[in-house]
Amino acid sequence: MTQGVCWLEGRILPLEKACVPVLDHGLLYGDGVFEGIRFYAGKAFLLAGHLRRLRRSARAIALACPWSDEELGRITEEVISAFDGADGYLRLIVTRGDGPLGIDPKPCRQPRLMVIASHLQMVDPASREAGIRIVIASTRRLPPDGLDPRIKSLNYLNHILARIEANRAGADEAILLNGEGKVAEGTADNLFIVRDGILLTPPVTDGALAGVTRRLIMQLARDGGIETRERSLAPYDLHTADECFLSGTGTELVPVREIDGRALGACPGPVYRRCLDAFTATIRTHCGGASS
Ligand SMILES: Cc1ncc(COP(=O)(O)O)c(C=O)c1O
Fold first, then answer.
1. Domain CATH number, residue 167
2. According to a count of CB atoms within 10 Å of the terminal CB, is the N or C end of the chain lower?
3. Tens digit of pLDDT for each residue in 214-255?
4. 212 close to ligand 1 (CB < 6 Angstrom)
5. Domain range for 250
């Protein structure tokens, strides 16, 4: 069975057959940007927010993205229809394209677009129900004057190093702190905690990606009467939280049951459950489907 399909240079190919040249600077240097987008019941979820962030990421690294939102929308529709399944995960990737081996992007004349439709299961169903175990990694989020965390670039190496730490600790996910020791985010997700009934998440300026799911959850929580604030968090806040959960396109929403070996009081907690219900209802309203 094919893993999925990929739009590449105007053609839709089985994922296993879709190849890029070894001189693509996305491969050589991580020189490119990407988005992950869920689709439910054959419809891309929160597409506009993802395309906005893709375009901003590309602008931030001075990468031309000559495809209009309409073209990208049409391509994603084509890819979803070619995919064998109504629910899945899209990956839009724009690289600097092919160039000589040197790091200089100037000779790269033609950016390359790939749009993949596939399956992505970041969390197994049992852990989604019972909650996951996370650890705070010693690997730090890169500082904004090195690589701004708002850019969703193809450089995930410090996240991968953090994830290796989680694997070695037998945990499901790692949380990265910023250079000042404040909580930034997970390796591919944003973090929320609940303290005294208030939903808290680190501000983007502490090194979090401006998650599209994070933003939706904050909105849904506020609409549902849950007091929600962006606030800097220290490891202490995580260790002593009433509840904790992660959000992301790949992750969707997942509750946390243990942080650095400390069991949390409630998992899945009441605030998480309310956010999950509102999230699932939003998916149904927008796409007619439900999260897995
Ligand atoms: C580093 C990082 N943080 C957070 C997120 C969650 O963002 P979103 O909800 O837009 O998928 C992602 C998603 O890929 C990510 O890679």
1. 3.20.10.10
2. N
3. 999 999 999 999 999 999 999 999 999 999 999 999 999 999
4. yes
5. 125-287
